[in-house]
Amino acid sequence: MGLKTDYISEKQLEPNPGVLYIVGTPIGNLEDFSPRAKNLLSKVSIIACEDTRHSGQLFKKFEIKATLISFHKHNIHARIPKLLKKLAEGETLALVSDAGLPSVSDPGEELVAASRKVGHKVVCIPGPCAAMTALVSSGLPSQRFCFEGFLPSKPKDRKALLNSISNETRTTIIYESPHRLLKLLKELSLLCGEDRSIQVARELTKKYEEQIGPTIGEAMKYFGENKPKGEFTLVLGGAPKGKITPISDEQLIEEMQKLISSGVSTNHAAKKLGSKTGYSRNYLYSLMH
Ligand code: SAM
Fold first, then answer.
1. Smallest Cα–Cα separation from 255: which of 233, 221, 278?
2. pLDDT score for 179
3. What pLDDT sits at residue 10?
4. pLDDT at 13
């Protein structure tokens, strides 16, 4: 079978001056660095990098010799005018992050928005992304999904988001660091129940890649016995449709208190309210303690 006619090989025409190129880089496996990305990066005059030393090591391997400019969460606003000036002067400019696609839990979106606002073309050279790699290899529904990235650490914001994630009927993708993985699994277990589907993807594209599931309970057991190491992306199955009615913690506590004052035990009240609302018994029980 020949190539589809809408496939092109535009290698010779790139890069164009005044265009912002957003370039995907490997998330662990150098073989995933695409020929187009390598070619473009070896031809642009400037590469904005989240960490110039980190990307510098990758570029050294591939003889990419552009001028590197740091572009990270602490200097975004100072850097944008400088990079826009370079584009306006007709320089060839690419943006990379430490790994994967810029703008996905990484710096990028503000620069893209600012470039578009002043009329510069933006072109993405696609590449690996941990979220998409984890999703499509999870076996969980992928026709509609949500991406949450890293959850907030402030207790109030975190609790509110976890509550909403537990009621979400679409598959949800979450990034987490190894030292907080077990805590997150426990939080999810309280809100979603141990039986909720999950695939915890570890070290995607790397030598020790693995996927742990198929339920929150199983993943908790595994990582209780095997200390989490490496990089993790969680793919959480959606809440059963129509089963959970979102209710605030305050209302749930009120309902629990009503049941308890009618004479039933906390455990029994949690069971009863759980089957009425869809919230896990453990979660309702924990609210009372
Ligand atoms: N921009 C990146 C992307 O496109 O995937 C994500 C950057 S975010 C700062 C880094 C997080 O992505 C890690 O903490 C981890 O949660 C997830 N991640 C990155 N590489 C991974 C890998 N090889 N396996 C599993 N998760 C990974």
1. 278
2. 97
3. 65
4. 83
**220 CB-near residues (< 8 Å, 6+ apart):** 182, 185, 186, 189, 194
Answer whether 288 contacts ligand 1 (Cβ < 6 A).
no
Query: Given this model, what pLDDT does residue 282 score?
Result: 83
Long-range contacts of 121-124 (CB under 8 A, 24+ apart): 121/16, 121/18, 121/19, 121/20, 122/19, 122/20, 122/21, 122/22, 123/14, 123/19, 123/20, 123/21, 123/22, 124/21, 124/22, 124/23, 124/24
Q: What is the pLDDT of residue 120?
A: 97
Predicted pLDDT of residue 168: 95
**Which atom of ligand 1 is closest in space to residue 177's alpha carbon?**
14
- Please provide residue 199's backbone torsions phi and psi, each rounded to the nearest 5 degrees: -125, 120
The pLDDT value given to residue 2: 55
Q: Is the CB of 182 within 6 Å of ligand 1?
A: no
User: Which residues of the chain carry a pLDDT beneath 70?
Assistant: 1-5, 10-12, 242-246
From the CB of 107, is ligand 1 less than 6 Å away? Answer: no
Question: With the CA atoms of 35, 124, 51 and 84 taken in that order, what torsion angle do they form, in degrees rounded to the nearest 10?
Answer: 130
